[in-house]
Amino acid sequence: HFGSSRRLPHSLALPPCQLALRAPPTARLVAMQRCVSLARPTATVAVPGIAAAAAKRLAAAVATAPRGAEPSEAAVAQWSRYEELSRTAGEIRYSEVNKRYVPPLQPMELPTTAPKDNASGRMSERHLKAEWSDEEIAGAVRDNVVMTWANSANRSSLPRMVRGEGVYLYDSTGKQYMDMTSQAVCTNMGYTLDESVKQAVMKQMSELPYAYPGLGMVEIRARLCSLLAEITPGDINGFLFPLGGSEANEGAIRIARQYTGKVKIMSAMRSYHGGTTGPLAATGDFRTRFAGEQPGFVKIFNPHALRFSTGASDEEAAQQALKMLEEQMICEGPETIAAVLLETIVGANGVFLHPSGYLEGVRALCDKYKILLILDEVMCGFWRTGPLFAFQHFRGVVPDILTSAKGLTSSILPLGMIGLRQGIKDHFEKAPLGWGATYANHPVLLACAYEVVRKNCQVQLEKKVAKIEAIMLEEVDQLIRKYRCVSQGRVIGAFGCLDLVNKDGIPLNLLGEPLPKEALLVKESMVKQGLFGLFRSPMMHICPPLVITEEELKEMFSRIRGVLDDLDATL
User: Fold this and answer.
1) Rounded to a whole number, what is the distance in angstroms from the first to the last CA of the chain?
2) 299, 325, 354, 500: which sits with the fewest CB atoms below 10 Å from its CB?
């Protein structure tokens, strides 16, 4: 086998068949095959008589072994040498080298920490009192309340609201405020709660306060879905109900990705879609930074830009924005884009009305490249702009997925809505939707929504909003013409906004920047004038509750003029 009769070293002084049995697996097969044909007595073997018996065993093993291309002798030798080098007991001749690796650090003791008392506290007697003193309330606010979005330092300076009536709110000192923005553009029905809404909510609470939506069906869920399918335009026939606008957009993004198998969501630079991670990543104002880096979101330009013009006319701006959008779709790859997510009317960022033809063009581009269109009507839906939904302003436009909230219950109780076109609804008859929540489709909340929507359909709320729009158009036009601090303004339905500027004609600040002295003056003047609302400098939103009367609306604009008088006086 070795082609020589010289005496072998002790480590090799074994019959070839014995060496074969000790070889690595691949080399073993090659060696066994050779040993079967070469096995014979040899004068150099130190243990005579073994070779023939070993050869028989090897022959049987070789007969059943899988056949393949034989590795070269050089490869087998290299593999064998490595197995001599790397062994638990060390290199075959130098046993202190390449032994099994020993971790250099000693086992460490797990850290311990001083135990904290984690027993439940005891409820104090004050929680058994029907009323708290002003000091007790102030102390609880100071010690335990955490504010949202901004820091919490101002929590003790906020007015403590105690009751509401119609479009008015009253604080703990008795001061009256007019709600000029429906708070966060959500208290559409004001503060005098319709008796039928109270009864509907109490009835559901008495009969069945909760049913997990995946385990049981309730009548009120069927009723609300049926009502919305009847009144919503197009073939938007499938509905589900998360707890608010952010969850609605979160669900819409998930559904679009599940339905298309694609990931990217395109959304506008100046937009707001909610505070949860996905919608906040899709948001186009400063708040998107709180979401951190989130993959799969692509920003597009609005027809309305901050630093450059997209055209001298609405038609030119629409065409320019659509060309930029198609360019991005092509560059991103339509096969990677699940949906375009837009506010039908840009809300928190300034009540921007899309130029005629723009939203129609977005719909056409989505159809061309097989991309879903999601329209966010959390703020502008449910009669805020006149019709039931704002997309009805745009010729022939129907979104694939529609989201809304706020006006759905007038924020009496928290609820959002996701509406699906028939084709998407059909897809999820068998495919899993992939979204849900414990409190989604909550029967008590649905009862509230059903009664609010039903009542507003009965009173034909769109006619009421048309009257509000007529007054707001006239009033805002006068404000733009009269005040130096007002550069421009926009109105659609009961949805309006003024752009405020300083003495140089420049916006008071960029949204999200620290407030300048002029903006602080506006906030102080609003309190002085008895106006309550969301002031997002440099924008002054004017979005009254939809139940406001003509006289109340004119009174509201009188108070707004008082604020603008104060601002103009500083310019």
Assistant:
1) 106
2) 299
pLDDT for residue 18 is more than 70: no
Least confident of 14-18, 101-105, 292-296, 339-343: 14-18
Find, among 229, 296, 294, 300, the residue nearest to 271 by Cα.
300
- pLDDT (tens digit per residue) in 386-411: 999 999 999 999 999 999 999 999 99
Residue 570 is encoded by which pair of tokens?
């500083």
Cα 501 from Cα 503, distance rounded (Å): 7
Are the beta carbons of 371 and 339 closer than 8 angstroms?
Answer: yes
User: Is the pTM for the entire model greater than 0.70?
Assistant: yes
Cβ atoms < 10 Å from Cβ of 361: 19
pLDDT at 33 over 60: no
Q: Which residue has the tokens 């050779």?
A: 34
534 touches 183 (CB < 8 A): yes
Is pLDDT of 271 > 80? yes
Backbone φ/ψ region at 370: left (φ over 0), alpha (ψ -120 to 50), beta: left
Range list of β-strands (E), 316-435:
337-343, 372-377, 401-404, 417-421
- Alpha helices, DSSP H only, in 242-337? 245-260, 277-282, 314-332
Q: What is the pLDDT of residues 66-78, one digit of tens each?
A: 566 789 999 999 9
524, 542 Cβ separation under 8 angstroms: no
Long-range contacts of 289-298 (CB under 8 A, 24+ apart): 295/263, 296/263, 296/264, 296/265, 297/264, 297/265, 297/267, 298/264, 298/265, 298/266, 298/267, 298/328, 298/332, 298/337
Spatial neighbors of 502 by CB under 8 A, at least 6 apart, are 485, 508, 516, 518, 571
How far apart CA 282 and CA 265 sit, in angstroms, is: 7
Task: Quote the distance between the C-alpha of residue 98 and its chain's center.
Answer: 54
